Amino acid sequence: MRGICGAVILILAAAWFILRLKSGRRYVNLRGLPMEGIRLRKVGEPLLLLVEASRITSYFPSVIFKIQRSIQKSQGARQGAERTLLFLGEMLSYSWLLLIAGCTLSLITGERIGIVLGTFLAGALPIALVSDLHKKVKLREQLITLELPELLNSIVLLVGAGETVQRALVRCSASRKGDISHPLYRELATMISEWESGYSFQQAFENFSKRCAVQEVALFTTTVLLNYRRGGGDFALSLRDLSRMLWERRKAISRTRGEQASAKLVFPMVVIFLIVIVLVGTPAFMMLNM
């Protein structure tokens, strides 16, 4: 077993160094590409050559499309293919390191459990990374949907007080300038910087909708672009109707999240109940046996 594990470690290490030499400066443009959650750029860079050479993306087109779509929603539409490649390299890096760690454990202990555990984790961790990516995107969409009615209410009040739509959006963004971590206000700040740098209001608003990639934001964008030129009571009335509908959706999401939180508490409560039964019942059984 130790001989097999040693040979596997040598093969994996030699393969990485060969890929490192062959890749050269092929992926040098990806080194400075900003992307959250990528920690093993240097380890994964040679493995990107393996991804392209094996054409693994052509065997699972639907999976790769979903990954790229989630990355574009969370990281932005620009350079989506490059970021998807980085994510695949990150997945392979974790699998490669886990295989080496499992073989090293078996080499030290002489037991098979190390390589079995390493192989299992090497296959399970990429699935967990993809699942975590989709969960983050879903959470981002929920945060945007939950905050959008608040933003819309502020816009309705400001427009009703005589502000233009553009000035209302600027004031809403400025009031939450310290909360730039929120995805809605981060995209709103990007939209404002776009039209200030030369984009038309309509183009910047459409880009805002595409970056958010949420149905409620698309509806909000359509309503604003169709009615903001009219102004007056019609525009304020259309925004109020939209606000009521978005508040209903917010309530539905809040109820769903509450039900999910309650479901997560069921298992700990069952465990606590069993522990209490054991603590209470053990003395009673001991007294009966006596």
Automatic annotation (TrEMBL):
It holds the Pfam family T2SSF. The keyword DNA-binding does not apply. Keywords: Cell membrane, Membrane, Transmembrane, Transmembrane helix. The chain crosses the membrane at residues 85-107, 113-130, 265-288. GO terms for cellular component: plasma membrane. Residues 152-283 form the Type II secretion system protein GspF domain. It comes from the Bacteria. Its main location: membrane. InterPro entries: T2SS_GspF_dom (IPR018076). It is found in: Cell membrane. The keyword Transmembrane helix applies. It is a multi-pass membrane protein. PANTHER family: INTEGRAL MEMBRANE PROTEIN-RELATED (PTHR35007), PILUS ASSEMBLE PROTEIN (PTHR35007:SF2). This is Type II secretion protein F. It comes from Paenibacillus wynnii.
